[in-house]
Amino acid sequence: MKYRTPAVLIVLAGCVSLAPAQASMSPRVLGGGGGGVVVVPNDPMLDPSSPEARAYAAFQREKRAIARRLRVLRRRHFGSMRNVERRQEGLRKLREYTSPAALAAMTELFDREDEDVRGAVLDHFASLQNDDGDAALAWEAVHGQDAWYRDRARELLAERLDDADTTTRDIPPRVGGIIAQALRGQNDNDAVAAGRLVHALKLYGFIPLMASAQVAPRAGGQERTGDLGWIMIGRQQTFVADLIPVVSNNAVGLDPQIGVVSDGVMLRVHDAVVTVYRTELYRELVAMTTEAWGQPTDALGYDAGAWQDWYTKEFVPSLAAGRDADRPDD
Predict the structure, then answer these.
(1) Would 247 be classed as within a structural domain?
(2) How far apart are CA 324 and CA 326, in angstroms?
(3) Within a domain: residue 320?
(4) What is the pLDDT of residues 110-144, one digit of tens each?
(5) Which residue, 110, 116, 113, 157, is CA-closest to 133?
(6) Predicted confidence band at 308 (pLDDT cuts at 50, 70, 90)?
(7) When you count CB atoms within 10 A of the terminal residue's CB, does the N or C end of the chain come out lower?
(8) DSSP summary character for residue 95
(9) Which residues pair with 15 in a beta bridge?
(10) Average pLDDT over residues 1-6
(11) Same domain, 236 and 151
């Protein structure tokens, strides 16, 4: 069960342009609240009395207040409640919550509910037909707990954005921010889900980032060198390696020192490096690019540099030529 606060839901990721010529995106994290759009205080040393910090704090207060009301609604209408009319009444009341803070709270509170409730939550997000609902759907399509739930969120978002030319225009910024964050992260399941969302929405501007994400980033921490472990298969024989005289009044003795001789085979693990290949993301990338280009792309493998060269030199010109061919003559 997830208890992560979907911060990207409550932010605007700046102008994340997905023009085919772009190879990477670094969306700025912005947040809404109070009287407008402000920078979210990512820096813990930021002055807590600044307008940005106050706006973010106000959003969090609103979210907590709405979450309390939603818990009461969940307890009265959902969970073990099997009265159909009560459950339907609860589903109608859910649609009254439309603010960004409410949507952020709803993505966290209904993970254990039955499919009818969770499906209704997704339908509610889609019915808003705005950037807030799109961001909520994108978050659940990437971070949702169950496969069917992620699939449904992805389908609804694809229907919402179906008419958009996402190869050249800016997609909803928060949707792009959620996808980019997952592809750059260390969670393999989130990265794969983000790749499937890119495929469903045909966001070709994310191809270089998907190619880089095929190999999971190494976890942070102290680099270790030298022997990391060893395995020995053999026999050890003890022997008296030395005798140390021990002298006392009118007495003398010897303190034997025992040594060990090992005979066998030892396997040493020295400076090991583990590389994780996200095969499901690779298959998603190959399927999307082969479909869009009309030729197989599986030979590019996991080489991010090869994907970048292909994207810049072959795929983008191919897309441009296709658009020119489809444009009616003047």
Answers:
(1) yes
(2) 5
(3) no
(4) 988 999 999 999 999 999 999 999 999 999 999 99
(5) 157
(6) very high
(7) C
(8) T
(9) none
(10) 44
(11) no
| Contact (Cβ atoms closer than 8 angstroms) between residue 120 and residue 99 | no
| pTM score, whole prediction | 0.73
Domain count, the chain: 2
Please check whether residue 244 is in contact with residue 257, taking contact to mean a CB–CB distance below 8 angstroms. yes
Domain that holds residue 246: 227-270
| 167 and 241 share one domain | no
Long-range Cβ contacts of 150-156 (<8 Å, 24+ apart): 150/193, 150/196, 152/119, 152/122, 153/122, 153/125, 154/196, 154/197, 154/200, 155/200, 156/122, 156/123, 156/125, 156/126
Split at pLDDT 50, 70, 90, the class of 12 is: very low
Rounded to whole angstroms, what are the CA distances from 117 to 95, 122, 148, 181, 203? 12, 9, 14, 28, 30
Residues composing the chain: 330
Structural tokens at position 225: 């060198």
Which of 46-50, 256-260, 266-270 has the least mean pLDDT?
46-50
Is the confidence at residue 36, as pLDDT, over 50? no
Please indicate, yes or no, if residue 308 is contained in any of the structural domains. no
**What is the residue type of 157?**
L
Q: 14 and 129: one domain?
A: yes
